[in-house]
Amino acid sequence: MNGNMADFADDHLVKLAKQGDVDAFTELVRRFEEKIYHTILSLTRNQQDAYDLAQETFMHAYKSLRNFKQRSTFYTWIYRIAVNLTLNFLKKRKKDEKREVQLGDYSLDVKSATSTLSPEGYSMKKELSEKLKEAIDSLPLAYKVSFVLVVSQGLTHTQAANVLRCSENTISWRMHKARKMLQQKLRPYLEGE
Amino acid sequence: MRHKKIEKWLSDNIDGELPEKKKKILETHLRKCSSCSSYAENIQRIHKEAKSLEKLEVSPIHWEEFTSRIKTEISSAQQERLLGAPLFLRWKWAWAGATLLFVIIVGLFLYLTKNKTPQQVYVFSFENSLAKIYQEIGSDQELEELFNSVILGSIGETLEDSEWGERPDFYENLILWENLTEEEMRFLESEIKKDNKL
Predict the structure, then answer these.
(1) Which of B11, B51, B77 sits opposite A176 (nearest CB)?
(2) B23–chain A Cβ distance below 8 A for any pair
(3) B81 CB near a chain A CB, below 8 Å?
(4) Is residue B176 part of a domain?
(5) Chain B partners of A176 at a C-beta cutoff of 8 Å?
């Protein structure tokens, strides 16, 4: 059964799933679970949250399948659900935690870190990766999501625009601003090498 | 201003979204401008680092478990759908009907009881007026006798009215006969003869 399902195109699987074929929907889950999970993980940076949100995404998709008019691809649609659920989750988490790390504090933190660094003491690359994660996390949500979708997930501007329901120009602008912000935050590490 | 534009183009170029025409202008500019060139290096590096940020390798077993969990969730969702709404929701129409019926009954009851408020029945009584008359009459014997005769006379008239035709003394009423004309007498005679088949 699964062998047959694997041969079908997404659209056909969606049609079958709409008719109540659980195997068809399971095949769609198999095709996108990893991508969806990693997208959510890039945004939440928490494995358990990513797992739960990915599951919620697919369940939400299954329940809303009747309303899916197939004007966009299933891939775009499921990404949109995942991103929306994750954004809501992040907004709620942000409210709950009242994050301590803010933009201004972060640059101070970076300076103090560089001043105490010993050139032989640590791997600059490792440091950059860690700081990059923090810097991405500190981006405004809209910029962060666009950056994750385009850079981490490899979506084109058009695809990202479809997922986020905005224009390609908006994505292009957000990418430019996100890069500029990241570059400003990470300059000490980038110049250090 | 020009540098800002170049920075935006650099971003688009990294994402592979810059048209070929602009790419050539960009390359020319970068050869001349060291600050833009440095910016280009930085954002290129950020892009590479972000792409290579550790992606957790998730084992296939994990995905199998994930898929089967989704499948289980779907099955239970389907069962819920088949069973329909929860019991209390399935009875919602019955509840709605019962409530409506209750409202109608209460409304009807209120309507009827409102219109059924006891009407004030006016009973005319002579008692008070008669008592006053009796008081005044009681002091004068002549007046009392006159009053009694009038009352008795009116009672008699009432009796005469109700028993007209049955009274045998009708024929004996001389006043009646004396006042009749000859013609009326002949008519009466003929009628009496007819009645008695004479």
Answers:
(1) B11
(2) no
(3) no
(4) yes
(5) 7-8, 11-12
Cβ-defined contact of B17 to A133 (cutoff 8 Å): no
Tell me the CATH architecture of domain A103-192.
Orthogonal Bundle (1.10)
DSSP calls for B35-65: HHHHHHHHHHHHHHHHHTSPPP---HHHHHH
Decide if B21 is inside a domain.
yes
Just give the CATH number of A2-97. 1.10.1740.10
Range of the domain at B183: 168-198
Going residue by residue through chain B, which has 198 residues, state the pLDDT in tens, using 9 for 90 and above.
488 899 999 999 999 999 999 999 999 999 999 999 999 999 999 999 898 886 666 777 788 888 888 888 888 877 776 666 555 566 777 888 889 999 999 999 888 887 666 666 666 666 677 777 777 777 777 888 887 888 788 777 766 655 554 555 556 666 667 777 888 888 888 888 888 777
Token pair belonging to A51: 């797992």
Q: How is residue B130 written in tokens? A: 């008669």
Kindly list the residues from chain B whose CB atom is less than 8 angstroms away from the CB atom of residue A144: none
Determine whether B69 is exposed, middle or buried from the number of CB atoms within 10 Å of its CB (0-12, 13-18, 19+). Answer: middle
Cβ of residue A41 closer than 8 Å to a chain B Cβ: yes
Contact assessment for residue A41 and residue A47, using Cβ atoms and an 8 Å cutoff: yes
ipTM over 0.85: no
Contact A66/B at CB under 8 A: no
